Amino acid sequence: MQNNPWERARAQLKNTAKIISLDSLLEARLGSPDRVVEISIPLLLDDGSVKVFTGFRVQHNNILGPYKGGLRYHPQVDMDEVKALAFWMTMKNAVIDVPFGGGKGGITVDPKKLSESELERLTRGFARELSSYIGPETDVPAPDVNTTPKIMAWIRDEYSKIVGKDSPAVVTGKPVGEGGSEGRTEATGLGGFYALMELLNLSNREYKDMTVAIQGFGNVGSFLAEYLKEAGFKIVALSDSKGGIYAPEGIDVAKAETYKKSKGSLLGFGGKDISSDEVLTLPVDIIVPAALENAITEKNAPDIKASIVLELANGPTTLEADEILRAKRITVIPDILANAGGVAVSYFEWYQNMHDEKWKKEDVFKKLKAKMDSAARAVYGAHKTYGVSLREAAYIVALKRIAAAV
Ligand code: NAD
Q1: What's the mean pLDDT when you consider all of the chain?
Q2: Would you state the pLDDT for residue 2?
Q3: How far, in Å, is the centroid of ligand 1 from the Cα of 48?
């Protein structure tokens, strides 16, 4: 059960429902997605052959507003994972207090094995089949693992052709010149940084020179690393799917990024080469899972030495691991708070599209900070009031907001 994210999501719901005596009908409603869409996408490959791909869209709940959540292109995308990710979006949107419900989707594909034109045809095919289920006021997809602003622009274009009018608000995470918001690329990493800072402030913890190890050096992990370094944290380990590096004296994040771009991997950058997962058990103050689900399990949790886990990936900690971390008194800043910056700025983008506005980057960051600070304070408040973990507190905040809107 521990590796099934959907079972984990349901267990989290059940646990919190009990703490706040949630209405049983609402609990049952949230315990299953509103709708699950499965789509076959036949694709003509460049070599003339045809391959059929499977895409999913799970619309979990829309009590607070249109379904909202990312699309992931990954060879291991499966329905239980997508259902869990959609559930977490419902919770996250409620925690960060934006008027959206939760959705998630994806295609079971390794996009690195497709040419650019195959990827475009696959995405447009997916968008055509999805078009009757999505829309600015129905369901608004966004980027996630392996999906990019360009992919979002293809979806907007395809959807707009089908409905016969330009509809930029059908997706978020578009390129800035094509209806995207300033600051969306930085948003999740920056939001995680704001949440961490606010919680450190609330708990009166000094952060200068705290050491940090980050698993996943993609969009989210790389921006977080830069903001942390700028604020005086010491980034000592980084990893991606190919492996990691550990340098106790500190890593020059910008140089590591350039190196990774040119070599395709962090290995050999400097310090010591380590495995992708080893970053999580190093002797550091903060670890940041920023790659995929189930990074922290009962196998590696006993070896974790950090005092703070900042969950930037979705669902990186299994239930069993969560128990182990709790017993070790490790503070876990839960995903539905820590990585909510992405959807906060997605909401800002959607809002700008709907109202034909364009905000400056500094205004976006100011509004993002306000959202993250306020969510962190609400979660910290519930943590103190109910004497529960920050994760349970985040679910309490979310479920109370949803219950109040029914
Ligand atoms: P990305 O594709 O840009 O980066 C993912 C990174 O993880 C890559 O560097 C990849 O090499 C690395 N990775 C994959 N498997 C790994 C492993 N086993 N060990 C170490 N590294 C590994 O994706 P992203 O947008 O940065 O998203 C990362 C996580 O953050 C995902 O869980 C995603 O759902 C979550 N998230 C992203 C956003 C967003 O705005 N992009 C918002 C909320 C949550």
Answers
A1: 96
A2: 52
A3: 32
